[in-house]
Amino acid sequence: MSWRKKKMRNKLLGEMERYFGRDARRINHARRVLGYAEQILSREKGDGEVVTAAAILHDIGIHAAEKKHGSTAGKFQEIEGPPIADHLLRRAGFPEDKIGEVLTIIAHHHTPGIVKTTNFKILCDADRLVNLEDEKNSREG
């Protein structure tokens, strides 16, 4: 990963952590999804900047969904997440030509099948792996 891409990754992590504040659960989830996404990227041909940004920000709308809709359901996260992500991406100086794809991934990551790009599939697989781990741990716990 180039210095420029690593710097952007760290900026986006900082933006996400500031946005979530003390919500360690959401921060840790995003970091774990990012870890899996990076592993998958090492084997698949995706756009590292798009996948990294989508992994970090994919659930960024969860607080707004809960506040506006009284629910953290995926359909509400898909509505509330893109405008928040757009603001954070622009504030971090993310490449303008890639923002649209990141927002599309965030807007559909709970409804697989609509978007068919490699970048979308990588994010969904990484998120699914983390969610499966969490389910397993809660059953065993």
How would you portray this structure in words?
The chain has 141 residues and is an all-alpha fold. The protein has one domain: Hypothetical protein af1432 (Orthogonal Bundle), CATH 1.10.3210.10. It has 7 helices and no strands. The protein starts with a helix and ends with a helix. 35% of the residues are buried.
Supply the key terms.
single chain, 141 residues, mainly alpha, Hypothetical protein af1432, 77% helix, 0% strand
Coarse shape: globular
Name the CATH homologous superfamily. Hypothetical protein af1432
How many strands, what sense, and barrel or not for the largest sheet?
none
What percentage of residues falls in helices of 4 or more residues? over 70%
What fraction of the residues are assigned to beta strands by DSSP? under 5%
Identify the CATH class.
Mainly Alpha
Give the averaged pLDDT, no decimals.
93
Domain count, please report it: 1
Which regions are unreliable across 5 or more consecutive residues at pLDDT < 50? none
Would you tell me the structural class of the helices and strands? mainly alpha
- Provide the succession of SSEs: HHHHHHH
- The separation of the N and C termini measures 37 Å
